[in-house]
Amino acid sequence: MFKKILFIIGILIMATNTKNLKASNSMFITLETTKGSIIIKTLPKIAPNHVKRIKELVKNGFYDGIIFHRVIPGFMAQTGDPLGNGTGGSGKNLKAEFSDYEYKYGTVGMARSMNPDSGDSQFFICFDGCTHLTGQYTVWGQVESGMKNVEKIEVGEPPSSPDKIKKAYLGKKKPK
Protein backbone atom coordinates (compact mmCIF):
# COMPACT_ATOMS: atom_id res chain seq x y z
CA MET A 1 0.00 0.00 0.00
CA PHE A 2 2.81 2.42 0.93
CA LYS A 3 4.52 1.81 -2.44
CA LYS A 4 1.26 2.56 -4.28
CA ILE A 5 0.87 5.85 -2.43
CA LEU A 6 4.47 6.83 -3.25
CA PHE A 7 3.91 5.87 -6.88
CA ILE A 8 0.76 8.04 -7.10
CA ILE A 9 2.53 10.98 -5.42
CA GLY A 10 5.40 10.58 -7.89
CA ILE A 11 2.99 10.64 -10.84
CA LEU A 12 1.29 13.78 -9.49
CA ILE A 13 4.64 15.54 -9.01
CA MET A 14 5.77 14.61 -12.52
CA ALA A 15 2.47 15.85 -13.99
CA THR A 16 2.77 19.14 -12.11
CA ASN A 17 6.39 19.60 -13.23
CA THR A 18 5.48 18.83 -16.84
CA LYS A 19 2.61 21.33 -16.67
CA ASN A 20 4.97 23.97 -15.23
CA LEU A 21 7.52 23.30 -17.96
CA LYS A 22 4.89 23.69 -20.66
CA ALA A 23 3.66 26.90 -19.07
CA SER A 24 7.17 28.33 -18.80
CA ASN A 25 6.83 30.17 -22.11
CA SER A 26 10.22 28.92 -23.25
CA MET A 27 11.22 29.56 -26.78
CA PHE A 28 14.04 28.28 -28.92
CA ILE A 29 16.60 30.47 -30.58
CA THR A 30 18.45 28.97 -33.51
CA LEU A 31 21.84 30.29 -34.47
CA GLU A 32 22.82 29.33 -37.99
CA THR A 33 26.61 29.61 -37.80
CA THR A 34 29.49 28.97 -40.16
CA LYS A 35 29.97 25.68 -38.26
CA GLY A 36 26.29 24.59 -38.29
CA SER A 37 23.11 25.10 -36.27
CA ILE A 38 23.02 25.74 -32.52
CA ILE A 39 19.60 25.52 -30.87
CA ILE A 40 19.19 27.28 -27.53
CA LYS A 41 16.21 26.85 -25.22
CA THR A 42 15.50 30.15 -23.46
CA LEU A 43 14.93 30.18 -19.70
CA PRO A 44 12.44 33.01 -19.07
CA LYS A 45 11.62 31.86 -15.53
CA ILE A 46 15.26 32.38 -14.55
CA ALA A 47 16.02 35.60 -16.48
CA PRO A 48 12.82 37.11 -17.93
CA ASN A 49 14.32 40.48 -18.83
CA HIS A 50 17.41 38.99 -20.48
CA VAL A 51 15.33 36.52 -22.50
CA LYS A 52 12.99 39.32 -23.58
CA ARG A 53 15.94 41.48 -24.70
CA ILE A 54 17.73 38.63 -26.53
CA LYS A 55 14.46 37.83 -28.35
CA GLU A 56 14.11 41.50 -29.37
CA LEU A 57 17.68 41.53 -30.71
CA VAL A 58 17.12 38.28 -32.61
CA LYS A 59 13.84 39.59 -34.13
CA ASN A 60 15.63 42.78 -35.23
CA GLY A 61 18.45 40.81 -36.93
CA PHE A 62 21.06 42.19 -34.52
CA TYR A 63 23.05 38.95 -34.33
CA ASP A 64 23.08 38.24 -38.06
CA GLY A 65 26.69 38.39 -39.27
CA ILE A 66 28.26 38.85 -35.83
CA ILE A 67 31.46 36.88 -35.13
CA PHE A 68 32.52 34.71 -32.20
CA HIS A 69 35.25 37.07 -30.97
CA ARG A 70 36.47 35.16 -27.92
CA VAL A 71 36.73 31.37 -27.85
CA ILE A 72 38.68 29.68 -25.07
CA PRO A 73 39.04 25.87 -25.32
CA GLY A 74 37.54 24.01 -22.37
CA PHE A 75 35.81 27.17 -21.17
CA MET A 76 33.46 29.08 -23.52
CA ALA A 77 32.68 30.71 -26.88
CA GLN A 78 31.57 34.37 -26.80
CA THR A 79 29.67 36.41 -29.38
CA GLY A 80 27.19 39.29 -29.62
CA ASP A 81 29.57 42.23 -30.16
CA PRO A 82 28.84 44.19 -33.35
CA LEU A 83 32.39 45.62 -33.21
CA GLY A 84 33.89 42.12 -33.00
CA ASN A 85 36.45 43.03 -30.34
CA GLY A 86 34.57 42.56 -27.05
CA THR A 87 33.85 46.25 -26.43
CA GLY A 88 30.56 46.76 -28.29
CA GLY A 89 26.91 46.10 -27.65
CA SER A 90 23.38 47.13 -28.52
CA GLY A 91 23.47 50.17 -26.25
CA LYS A 92 21.04 48.88 -23.61
CA ASN A 93 22.43 47.49 -20.36
CA LEU A 94 20.35 45.08 -18.31
CA LYS A 95 20.05 44.64 -14.56
CA ALA A 96 21.61 41.33 -13.52
CA GLU A 97 19.28 38.37 -12.96
CA PHE A 98 21.54 36.02 -11.05
CA SER A 99 20.29 32.55 -10.14
CA ASP A 100 21.53 29.27 -8.73
CA TYR A 101 21.18 27.59 -12.15
CA GLU A 102 24.49 25.81 -12.42
CA TYR A 103 26.73 26.65 -15.33
CA LYS A 104 27.47 23.41 -17.15
CA TYR A 105 28.13 22.13 -20.66
CA GLY A 106 25.92 24.13 -23.04
CA THR A 107 24.74 26.79 -20.57
CA VAL A 108 24.29 30.20 -22.18
CA GLY A 109 25.13 33.23 -20.06
CA MET A 110 25.26 36.97 -20.49
CA ALA A 111 28.71 38.51 -20.77
CA ARG A 112 29.34 41.65 -18.74
CA SER A 113 32.07 43.93 -17.41
CA MET A 114 32.97 44.17 -13.72
CA ASN A 115 29.64 45.94 -13.20
CA PRO A 116 26.99 43.23 -12.61
CA ASP A 117 24.38 45.37 -14.38
CA SER A 118 26.36 45.82 -17.60
CA GLY A 119 25.06 42.86 -19.63
CA ASP A 120 23.96 44.09 -23.06
CA SER A 121 24.05 41.92 -26.19
CA GLN A 122 27.14 39.77 -25.71
CA PHE A 123 26.70 36.21 -24.50
CA PHE A 124 28.75 33.06 -24.11
CA ILE A 125 28.16 29.35 -24.44
CA CYS A 126 29.98 27.18 -21.89
CA PHE A 127 32.01 24.12 -22.73
CA ASP A 128 33.24 22.95 -19.33
CA GLY A 129 34.95 24.73 -16.49
CA CYS A 130 32.20 27.31 -16.01
CA THR A 131 30.79 26.23 -12.64
CA HIS A 132 32.57 29.13 -10.88
CA LEU A 133 30.32 31.53 -12.86
CA THR A 134 27.14 30.24 -11.16
CA GLY A 135 25.44 33.12 -9.37
CA GLN A 136 27.91 35.61 -10.89
CA TYR A 137 26.61 35.89 -14.46
CA THR A 138 23.02 35.81 -15.71
CA VAL A 139 21.97 32.48 -17.25
CA TRP A 140 19.37 32.93 -20.00
CA GLY A 141 19.53 29.69 -21.99
CA GLN A 142 20.70 26.11 -22.43
CA VAL A 143 21.88 24.58 -25.70
CA GLU A 144 19.44 21.83 -26.69
CA SER A 145 21.40 20.70 -29.74
CA GLY A 146 24.45 21.75 -31.72
CA MET A 147 27.15 21.68 -29.06
CA LYS A 148 29.32 19.74 -31.53
CA ASN A 149 29.09 22.80 -33.75
CA VAL A 150 30.01 25.12 -30.87
CA GLU A 151 33.09 22.98 -30.23
CA LYS A 152 34.16 23.48 -33.87
CA ILE A 153 34.19 27.29 -33.59
CA GLU A 154 37.64 28.78 -34.30
CA VAL A 155 39.63 29.34 -31.11
CA GLY A 156 41.27 32.63 -30.15
CA GLU A 157 40.93 36.02 -28.51
CA PRO A 158 40.18 37.03 -31.25
CA PRO A 159 40.38 34.02 -33.57
CA SER A 160 42.57 34.56 -36.65
CA SER A 161 39.66 33.43 -38.86
CA PRO A 162 36.53 33.94 -36.73
CA ASP A 163 33.35 31.99 -37.22
CA LYS A 164 30.09 33.91 -37.22
CA ILE A 165 26.36 33.76 -36.73
CA LYS A 166 25.00 33.84 -40.27
CA LYS A 167 21.37 34.13 -39.10
CA ALA A 168 19.55 33.96 -35.76
CA TYR A 169 15.84 33.27 -35.49
CA LEU A 170 13.10 32.40 -32.99
CA GLY A 171 10.83 29.38 -32.77
CA LYS A 172 8.27 28.01 -30.29
CA LYS A 173 9.44 24.42 -30.74
CA LYS A 174 12.78 22.82 -31.21
CA PRO A 175 13.30 22.36 -34.97
CA LYS A 176 13.70 18.76 -36.15
What does the secondary structure layout of this molecule look like, with pairings?
Elements: H1 2-22, E1 28-33, E2 36-42, H2 48-59, E3 68-72, E4 76-79, E5 107-110, E6 123-126, E7 139-145, H3 147-151, E8 165-171
Antiparallel strand pairs: 1-2, 1-8, 2-7, 3-4, 4-6, 5-6, 5-7
Characterize the structure shown.
By secondary structure, this protein is of the alpha+beta class. The chain has a single domain (26-171), classed as Cyclophilin (Beta Barrel), CATH 2.40.100. Helix content is 22%, strand content 25%. It has 3 helices and 8 strands. It has helices spanning 2-22, 48-59, 147-151; strands at 28-33, 36-42, 68-72, 76-79, 107-110, 123-126, 139-145, 165-171. The protein has an 8-stranded antiparallel beta sheet. The longest helix is centred in the N-terminal third of the chain and has 21 residues, at 2-22. Mean pLDDT is 88; it is low at 2-24.
Instruction: Write down the Rg.
Output: 17 Å
Shape: globular
| CATH evolutionary superfamily | Cyclophilin-like
**Count of the domains:** 1
- Please write the string of helix (H) and strand (E) elements: HEEHEEEEEHE
Specify the structural class.
alpha+beta
Strand order of the largest sheet: 3-4-6-5-7-2-1-8
The CATH topology, please?
A: Cyclophilin
> What CATH architecture would you give?
Beta Barrel
- Count of alpha and pi helical runs: 3
**CATH top level assignment:** Mainly Beta
Total DSSP E strands: 8
Report the sheet with the most strands, covering strand number, pairing sense and barrel closure. Answer: 8 strands, antiparallel
Strand content: 25-35%
Identify low-pLDDT runs: 2-24
| Portion in helices | 10-25%
- The mean pLDDT is 88
